[in-house]
Write the structure tokens for this entry.
Amino acid sequence: MIKLKAFNHAAFRVSDVEKATAFYENVVGLKRIPRPNFGFGGAWYGIGNNALHIISSENRGQKPDPLGAHVAFDVEDFDETKRTLKEMGIEFLEGPNLGAGRQLWILDPDGNTVELRTEK
């Protein structure tokens, strides 16, 4: 049996690394970490003991899809997150608070779904 010891990273395909890095750095607020030169575009972001990798490739989504593949980030202030997204003109989908915390979903420039959530 395989015994997992930790979650390491999630990865998304992006068609425009520059546009994607602007989104993940300026909208989501991630900090870039060193990445080896693999010979193809991309960037890595550290989140606690985990990471998000973006990889240059073609892929496009149309609307946030909470039931599809996505990455989720805990936010400190849910209402401030919503206010900031509205200010930036970023469309989001908000889920009902059914006891599992508050959640909303946005798309990155390539249509990858990003969940922003809080326990409260």
In short: The chain has two helices and eight strands.
